[in-house]
Amino acid sequence: MRRLALAWLLCLPAARAAEAHPHMADDPLVWMLEVEELEHRRDGGAGDLHWDVVGWIGYDDNRLALRSEGERETGGPAENQLELLWWRPLSAWWDLVAGARYDSGPLDDRAYLAVGVQGLAPQWLHVEATGYLGDRGDWGVRLQADYDWLFTQRLVLAARAEGEWWSDSDDRLARGSGESAATLGLRLRYEIRREFAPYLGLEWKRSLGDSADLVRAAGDDVDSHRWVAGVGFWF
Amino acid sequence: MPDFLLALTRRQFVQGIAATALAGAAFRPRVLAAADAFDLTIGTMPVNITGRQRVANVVNGSLPAPLLTWREGEPVRIRVRNTLAEPTSIHWHGVIVPSAMDGVPGLSFPGIAPGEIFEYAFTPRQSGTYWYHSHSGFQEQLGLYGPLVILPREPEAPVAERDYVVMLSDWTDSNPARVLAKLKKEPDYYNYRQPTVGDFLRDARARGFSAALAESRAWGEMRMNRSDLADVGSSTYTYLMNGLSPAANWTGLFNPGERVRLRFVNAAAMTYFEVRLPGLEFTVIAADGQPVEPVSVEEFRIGPAETYDVVVTPKGDSAYTIFAQSADRGGYARGTLAPRTGLSAAVPATDRPVLLGLGDMGHGEHGDHGAHAGHAGHAMGGFQPRHAPAESGAGLDMRADAPRLALDDPGVGLRDNGRRVLTYAQLRSAFPDPDGREPARTIELHLTGHMGRYRWSFDGVRASEAAPVELVQGERLRFVLVNDTMMEHPVHLHGLWSDLEDEAGRFLVRKHTLSLRPGQYLRFRVLADALGRWALHCHLLLHMETGMFREVRVLEAPHA
Fold first, then answer.
1. Which of B140, B179, B196, B221 is the best mutation test for A, with the most CBs of A within 10 A?
2. Which one of A141, A147, B185, B481 is most buried, counting C-beta atoms within 10 A?
3. What's the complex ipTM?
4. Of B433, B544, B524, nearest to B481 (Cα)?
């Protein structure tokens, strides 16, 4: 798959850079792997490990992007959402992404088609909005917005609001993944280097819709919060 | 310009180590004196500028490359041997040579392959201070640049008893390809002067909350970073004077009472410098090698590839610091003029960093915040830019709809700083318009780009996708350049002089590299007298490498 993706990328028109005319090589192949969040989350119990990773490789007008978000309860199985996306700029501030999402976990794996936009909204709000269509006819929408406050050139308070809404599906709820919820996180990071920043933070979560009913039925609180400690880094 | 200023929170720039592998404190550029044949060998050399050993690209084992001295009207032959493992080239910056001798791979010639020798042969038809550098990849950032002085055909009465080249440059221990990759991934990677919450609160205290919020929101609406004065800055650069770090302190000697000519060349890949010599004033006598009517100033801003010849007259028996701060105010290149070796003078602190004002962006509606009042006659009603159809979409983050000429504006950070700062309006060639004809047509080109995506272009079209600009041999035409970005760009046209026009459209000054501030436009005349394929590009190396480059073709006039 990876080799196939690379071969595909190398065929893109952006790879036209002619050796004979070095000044035409103005669109270099660039890649980035960014672990935005790799953190221990603690909400009274044993806690879990959570990750949020993005990566991309390509040129100015075409990239192959990867997003992975997941968690593993201490001593338990891992849940992971992996998205493989084609990325293309739409306008000055907005990009299109389209591809597939694959959820794996303790129960059966699920696949979705994914289409979305991401970009920089006015007032420096980084936004990601993605819609999903599942292989069993279920669909969902995920929104994420990030904002950074610089206290110094290295000490940054990062706010992240995330919301996920899913169509009614007992099957999905039974699986326990893809729940409808809204999350607000505040993480205070210190950039030892631009590429490496440990952080501490707090995250609030509220379950929504059917997911909330399920949480209530289990006798848990619809609202919860937890402390997080982790590190962000990129290459 | 808003009145509040950033706190100095960046990390201390690396001043370098005192004894470099290159030379001692009395280092002078190596001179290959007036001759008709030169042998230059391009290769690598270990250097230690910051305390860490790195490999530079050099000519004849020297960083900067040796000073070449030619004489106007006398043919020269330069044999350039490439011992690098990759192709190389030498471009004679500002020297009008036949197209095949101009040294731009892909336009002039294929480049010089590893192990090959290329012989340049031409006759310089001009005199003055110029420089030469590699036009291949990132070699210029790695040290492949040197000064070039062409003596006038007839010896002139000397303007000074001492004559020194002062070559400014920027050095990074990082691989330049990695520097570009960092900018592609995180465009503010090297910017440690970004507005903080504290800056906002200080601004609110100084000007009131609503004014501070309005300004902050205006920048947020544009999604432009007003601290973005240098893509690559002092967080990675050490600034060099004649190849020496500030700690190594390049020194030029004088005897009390002597006049000293300093030939400033900005050979930096990405750095604008603000140059002064505390205690002395500069008499500027040449710009880009060409004589200008002498003008007396205390400071000048010099963009990459520009040159200024100045004369100073040190008083008495004391030392003076030549101080060239980077435009991001994070560091400086420094040297000394001294009556004896070993002397030095106080080194001033860098000026406080500044932020761009809304009035700097060429949008018109925001006004000037009063900082630039009095520079009249260039704002409203005059020039209407014509944005090309491709100036939209993903490759552009800004367009200047009301660009200003403002030749008499010293630029952000230098307005009303208490010193007399050189502006283009003060530069007047010491000769009349060499052509005299009115330009018969006008070509308008816009400098465009997207800082966040780190892509650069002319008229929204990158080099690899652009058609050449076609000129007809012998025509006199006018170029209008409009800066649609928030960065300052030094634009260099190869092979043909750029004759800058003043506000009334008259010939002002002949240059080879014209610097445009954000939201500025410039008009210059060109005589297309040299057949062939030429380069027109931004001389910020990483902007050129990511697309702010055009081919200009001078074609034979069709026979009647």
1. B196
2. B481
3. 0.89
4. B524
